[in-house]
Amino acid sequence: MNENSWMPLFILLSSLVPGLIIFTLSEKQRALRTTLNMAGATIKLLLIGVLIWGVLNGNVYETRIPLLPDMYLELHADALSVLFAGLSTVLWFLTTIYAIGYLEGSSNRSRFFGFFSLCVTATIGISMAGNMITFLMFYELLTLTTYPLVVHRGTSQALRAGNIYLAFTVSGGALLLLAVAWLRTIAGPLHFTETGLLSVYGQDYRIELITIFAMMIIGLGVKAALVPLHAWLPKAMVAPAPVSALLHAVAVVKAGAFGIVRVVYDVYGVNFALELGVLYPLALMAALTIIYGSLQALVQNDLKRLLAYSTVSQVSYIALGTAIAGPVATIGGLVHLVHQGLMKITLFFCAGNFAETLGIHKVSEMNGLGRRMPWTMAAFSLGALGMIGVPPLAGFISKWYLGSGAMVNGQLWVVVVLVLSTVLNAAYFLPVLYRAWFLPQEGPWPEEHSQLHGSRLETHWMLLIPPLVTAALTLGVGLFANSSISPLGWVRLITFREYGL
Amino acid sequence: MSLILTVPWMAWSILLPLGGAVATFLSRRYASRLTLLFGMATAVCVGALGWQLALKGPQRHHIGGWQVPVGIDLYADGLAVLMLAVTALVGLLISFYATAYFPKAGQEETGDQNVASSVYFWPLWLFLWGALNALFLSADLFNIYVTLELLGLSAVALSGLSGKAEALSAAMRYLFVSMIGSLSYLLGVALLYNMYGVLDLGLLASEVRPGPTSQAALALITVGLALKTALFPFHFWLPPAHANAPAPVSALLSALVVKASFYLLLRLWLGVFPTVINTTAVDLLGFLGALAIIWGSIQAFRQRRLKLLVAYSTVAQLGYLFLVFPLVLRGGDFTAWGGSAYLAVSHAFAKASIFLASGIIMHVAGHDRIDELAGIGQRLPVTMFALALAGVSLLGLPPSGGFIAKWMLLNAALITGQWWLVAVIILGGLLAAGYVFRMLAHSFTPATWISFEQPVARRMEWSAFALAAVAIALGLVAEPPLTLLQSSTSFAGPGLREMIP
Q1: A5 contacts: CB under 8 Å, gap ≥ 6
Q2: What is the DSSP secondary structure assignment for residue A302, as one 8-state letter?
Q3: CB B377, CB B445: distance < 8 Å
Q4: Which pick of A40, B133, B158, B187 has the fewest CB atoms within 10 Å?
Q5: Best residue in A185, A190, A243 to probe B by mutation, most B CBs within 10 Å?
Q6: Is residue A50 part of a domain?
Q7: A178–B441: do the CB atoms touch at under 8 Å?
Q8: Which domain holds residue A315?
């Protein structure tokens, strides 16, 4: 074992260990808890930085722990895992700051931050899983560690939402478990391999492989909120804002989408999947989800629910890009993994700020908000415009590549879906922006917490900084998309490797 | 080194607990301390035996130097040592818990209902421990009968310890079942002795021939042992007996006692009678196991009392163990029986933890009606955590011993193409999610006006937690115990027969 083989394990431990220690702390040990949280987040950020540098230079990072005589817990950092791990780490860092500010003075914070860290550990584990079994283990672990966060408030509404969340994710997990176990009896240890590993079995196991693919997509689609498996997601909105932010931008939904990417590219192999004919139904399912989510978002008045349906819609861009196949569409889908994360977390941070500072939960209450909270609203606007796909923001880059990719493959219907979705995105986001910036305030704010804003700031600095940073990133990754260290540049690298170019 | 190799550790690991039983009966004042002392000494013997096994392979020991057929023979292989080790570790932690659970001998005047319990618990438990160890090590059918009787009697006495009406009637029923079971077993043994004239397992294994007498004998033995293992539909006695006993006793019964008779089934079916069994017989056992999983889980979900829920979950989990027979007969091999043995082991830890935790909840709340426990999680975070961790193992989700075990069983079912077993294993996991999360329902509810103020000894909470932690750890370090099992246990092969003196 050299230092490279310890690296993935250390990255995992940098959130696991603080999380476990935090559980043992009492509510009053606030300073220690905050220190542990921030230290873990910072160390992880540094380690990921080193990792990115190493992967760029072609180093191999791999930790293997034997579980069974023929089964390994395998952590492996390739370009794709670094993409997701990097996103998770950066956003975890910001969300931690946000959550500390958000939960100031509420109860059960040790429990909250403990599970919060475990949840990030599971996400990082998913990103660095080197084979399907390791992926599965962290995928199930994610279910277990996010449940306490969803029901954190302990109200009967939260518990009900938690039950629905469990019913969906546990069933999905069981299906995935079965699919993985079955596939393993056919193809051995299922080590993730660029360009895929199943094509040699295509002759003998065609029907089995198609069935397993369907089972895997359903199992992963639950978390990725593919219609009709999305019903848990709007309900899970009862969770505290930092949880929603993390769930939607990084952890749960992304884990599902990331899993689909892994299965298509690194297990089946994109060319083999095309040959099996399984990608077309996936593309249809994704397209349906994109349209359905947007239509639902259109009729929501509750801001968080609107964002939830928008997530349902936007995450499926990743699946869509994956399913269209062809290098250009792949770039569009993968880069959206990062772009959607940045934009959506901005929106959720902002929604949380509105709720915490002024008690605003509904779109109809947002009139004149731009004057009262200009910074937060500006960040919100950047996120929303990015979602619509206005250049030069992040969302534009994703949609551009998706559209071009579809054109290259001659799938014009995808372009129609993209245009329709853009129109719908504009239709539900622009009225919100219009209200906030151009309509005058109607009466007092629902519930103003004056202690939250300092002398000059519109809200607590810990709540304000994270959305501003992510909004700036939304702009930055779009403006500097062509540089080699942007998400786009990195995704190009991945794509070249996946297609063996 | 030579000490390790020459001392008859097998004999000591039986004699020490029995000696302890006498000592604790005579010296009530120091009973709890003596139990810990004798328990630790026993654990050391088991450890040394394990070492001996690793150095020299499976062991046979003639007590007092008398050879078969006159003397008493002990036989230790990987499976036996694993069971001894589990008994020692689980037993020690339960003992540690019990030192705080039962009032001290000096406080007898308080008129507490637990007085009789505290006096008789220690000797009975050590007696039970001795009987268990003897059962795991016995190498002939008649000695096994004797250990079964000793085990049954001490278990029945323990289950009626509280002296309450429900407990006594449950114990009475348990007594009858246990007697009938032993009788049926003895009849089977008599038939075999009549036919082959030997009782030694090794000799019998090489002599036994398929035929109606052998089949009838095996059927009688199996019915007797299935009664004692509470295989559906013989499970009726288990829930009242396990649910009404004092917490440490419930834990011992569910974790260890029911496993003992299953251990014998495994040994006899796979090690001694592999030539006698046929597909109808194994499918019947597997089918009953499947019914146990489904029926037990549904009943568990429907219970209003926590301890009854847990007891029905034992019925369901025992059902999994019986899937081993159809799996092994159709070529599942080690994946099947190793998985089954591993499930027995991880269930022992998980279930002991859950019963101990339920005992704490009952102690604090004064009852165990699930619906009236709102806020208990705030009062007993460590206990709730133990319950959750052990629950993960019951669910068979990673990382836990339960996951590894069910993964192996699932793989065996897939390899042997028995799809109905695949379905049962997956369905059982989903049903388990139903009752486990019902069990955990009040982890997150906010505290109510009912205050749970009864003080709890910390060692009780931490004993429950330690057991749950082991159940989880079994999912991370599965290789050593499985290697022990695989390398030094040989079913249907020469292992037992080669050891003929």
Answers
A1: A61, A62, A63, A64
A2: B
A3: yes
A4: B187
A5: A185
A6: no
A7: no
A8: 284-501
Kindly report, residue by residue over A416-456, the tens digit of the pLDDT: 999 999 999 999 999 999 999 999 888 888 887 766 555 56
CA A55, A56, A62 angle in degrees (round to 5)?
10
- Chain B residues whose CB is inside 8 A of the A69 CB are 479, 482-483, 486
Ranking A211-215, A216-220, A232-236, B351-355 by mean pLDDT, the lowest is A232-236
Helical residues (DSSP H) of A265-411, grouped into ranges = 270-276, 279-298, 303-324, 327-358, 369-372, 374-388, 394-408
- Which residues of B fall within a CB distance of 8 Å from A137? 398-399, 403
Judge residue A273's burial from the number of C-beta atoms within 10 Å of its C-beta, 0-12 exposed, 13-18 middle, 19 or more buried: buried
The answer to whether residues B222 and B97 touch, using CB atoms and an 8 Å cutoff, is no
In total, the C-beta contacts within 8 angstroms joining chain A to chain B are 71
Cβ within 8 Å, pair B444-A158: yes
Note whether ipTM > 0.85 here: yes
- Is B426 close to A178, i.e. CB distance below 8 A? yes
Q: Name the closest residue on chain A to residue B432, using Cα atoms.
A: A170
Region B221-249: mean pLDDT is 93
Segment A25-65, tens digit of pLDDT: 888 888 899 999 999 999 999 999 999 888 888 888 888 88
Does A143 reach chain B within 8 Å, measured CB to CB? Answer: yes
Residue B225 reports pLDDT greater than 90: yes
Domain tally, chain B? 1
Nearest residue to B475 (alpha-carbon basis) of B422, B397, B413: B397
Question: Looking at beta carbons, which residues of chain B come within 8 Å of A174?
Answer: 426, 429-430
- Residue A290 falls inside a structural domain: yes
B478, closest residue in chain A (CA to CA): A67
Residues of B in contact with A151 (CB under 8 A): 444
Cα dihedral A345, A347, A352, A354, rounded to 10, equals 160
Which amino acid appears at position A122 of this protein?
A
Query: Is A173 within 8 Å of B397 when comparing Cβ atoms?
Result: yes
Closest by Cβ to A174, choosing from B404, B414, B426: B426
Q: Does A144 lie at the interface with B, CB-CB under 8 angstroms? A: yes
On whether residue A85 sits in a domain, the answer given is: no
Confidence of residue B321 (pLDDT cuts 50, 70, 90): very high
Contacts of B227 (CB under 8 A, 6+ apart): B177, B178, B180, B181, B184, B234
Residues whose CB is less than 8 angstroms from the CB of residue A479 and which lie 6 or more positions away in sequence, other chains included: A392
Whether the CB-CB separation of B350 and B90 falls below 8 Å is answered with no
Question: Is the peptide bond prior to B399 cis by the omega test (within 30 degrees of 0)?
Answer: yes
| CB spacing of A69 vs B385 below 8 angstroms | no
How many DSSP H helices and E strands does chain B contain?
A: 23, 2
Residues 6+ apart with CB under 8 A from B218: B188, B268, B269, B273, B276, B277
**What's the total number of domains in chain A?**
1
Cα separation, B207 vs B220, whole angstroms: 19
CB atoms within 10 A of CB B3: 7
| Domain that includes residue B365, residue range | 2-498
| A163–B contact, CB cutoff 8 A | yes
A151 touches chain B (CB under 8 A): yes
B422 at interface of A, judged by CB pairs closer than 8 A: yes
CB A303 within 8 A of CB A354: yes
DSSP string covering B337-406 = HHHHHHHHHHHHHHHHHHHHHHHHHHHHHSS-BGGG-TTHHHH-HHHHHHHHHHHHHHHTPSSSHHHHHH
DSSP element (H, E) containing B430:
helix B419-439
Q: How far apart (Å, rounded) are the C-alpha atoms in residues B139 and B402?
A: 29
Provide CB contacts within 8 A for B55, sequence distance 6+: B4, B5
Nearest to A86 by CA among A489, A467, A401: A489
When the pLDDT of each residue in chain A is averaged and rounded to a whole number, the result is 90
